[in-house]
Write a structure and sequence with these properties.
Layout lengths: L1 H6 L14 H8 L5 E3 L16 H9 L6 H10 L4 H5 L12 E6 L3 H9 L2 H26 L2 E3 L5 E3 L7 E8 L5 E10 L1 E3 L5 E3 L6 H19 L16 H10 L10 H18 L12 H11 L7 H8 L5 H16 L5
Antiparallel strand pairs: 1-5, 2-6, 3-4, 5-6, 7-8
Helix pairs in contact: 6-7, 7-8, 8-10, 10-12
């Protein structure tokens, strides 16, 4: 992933010329340099707001080492350490295959249009709200999503000491060259344990966190862009409620759940509900797995047991129908029964 970043993302999604230094390539295409952010910078010897260098990207994300690993190893050798001992100075725990995760933040389409066509003052206000939305979302990741395992056999989850490190890259255009304000954020999935050792942070392994992040980023953008007493956080791309999320899944199921998994969709619904709670959003949620409006209606209308959740009940009682197709057909029936607006 870091090679893709070095070839394209760090230079505004343009193809970086071979052997062109990173700073020069960024100036040539008109994008600002990447900047470090996050509470975990101090543990890596990085400074908040400092420019992200190519060598730091290569070592932290390409090799899974300390971003100044080569310097630390050289310092240890100069101090008389044996090569095998000195090599450990540049490591961040055991070697891992997944060293980072890529997040992309961009305002919803109507705000993008206002930013692209607005006056300079309007653009500054939108960019300021965009900045605050990113900061709030990254802080939420550190407070709620990032965990690291401690204890015998990694039995206990805890928060990484000091938080995480993020490399942010601001873009002003899409790949097609049209105006598009957005930020790529590369998340280091290495965290410091309370005992001073480093370990992996499985941040984005769960559908519930992916949906929570989607709602979090869009919701914070709405909140910071509104005046005091304005509307509460809304869902991604101007979603009004959970049914807009379900409509998006219906239109592009493979982009949301793997192999048409109804169980994964149920976990995603849990993530949506979790995000509503985090933001104190006043929205009725009817898709609790074993209770709530949808499950209760299924139990009454079909006589199915909800002991293992509506997802398991659908798969058990409608084995001849693709699970997602059956779910959306039943959702349509439930919406009609409950008087919800149509798709």
């Amino acid at each position: 992933m870091y090679r893709y970043y070095l070839r394209q993302v760090v230079v505004g999604d343009y193809l970086r010329p071979v052997r062109t230094p990173l700073g020069i390539a960024q100036v040539q295409v008109g994008v600002p340099p990447g900047r470090w952010t996050g509470r975990g910078l101090a543990g890596l010897g990085l400074r908040f707001g400092a420019i992200v260098t190519e060598d730091e990207l290569c070592q932290l994300f390409g090799q899974g080492r300390h971003p100044h690993g080569d310097w630390l190893v050289a310092e240890a050798l100069a101090a008389g350490k044996k090569p095998a001992v000195a090599a450990r100075a540049g490591k961040l725990g055991r070697a891992v295959e997944v060293t980072g995760a890529d997040l992309v933040f961009r305002p919803q389409p109507t705000i993008q249009l206002l930013w692209a066509l607005g006056e300079e003052e309007t653009r500054r206000v939108i960019e300021g709200a965009h900045e605050r939305a990113i900061e709030a979302t990254l802080a939420w990741i550190e407070d709620h999503a990032a965990t690291i395992r401690v204890g015998a056999q990694g039995r206990y989850p805890t928060r990484p000491v000091h938080g995480l490190a993020f490399a942010r890259f601001r873009h002003y255009e899409s790949r097609a060259g049209t105006p598009l304000l957005h930020d790529h954020v590369l998340v280091s999935l290495r965290g410091l344990r309370p005992d001073g050792t480093w370990g992996g942070v499985p941040l984005c392994s769960s559908s519930r966190w992916r949906v929570s992040l989607l709602v979090m980023s869009a919701g914070e953008g709405d909140a910071v862009g509104a005046s005091s007493g304005g509307p509460k956080a809304r869902a991604v791309e101007e979603w009004r409620d959970v049914y807009d999320l379900l409509d998006a899944v219906r239109q592009r199921p493979n982009a949301w759940v793997r192999n048409g998994s109804l169980q994964e969709l149920a976990v995603m619904m849990f993530g949506y509900h979790l995000a509503l709670q985090v933001h104190d959003v006043d929205e009725a949620f009817e898709f609790h797995r074993g209770s709530g409006g949808f499950a209760s209606w299924l139990g009454r209308a079909r006589g199915w047991s909800m002991a293992t959740g509506w997802d398991a009940a659908i798969m058990e009682n409608l084995p001849g129908e693709p699970p997602l197709d059956a779910f959306f057909r039943l959702v349509d029936e439930y919406r009609e029964f409950a008087g919800q607006p149509g798709s």
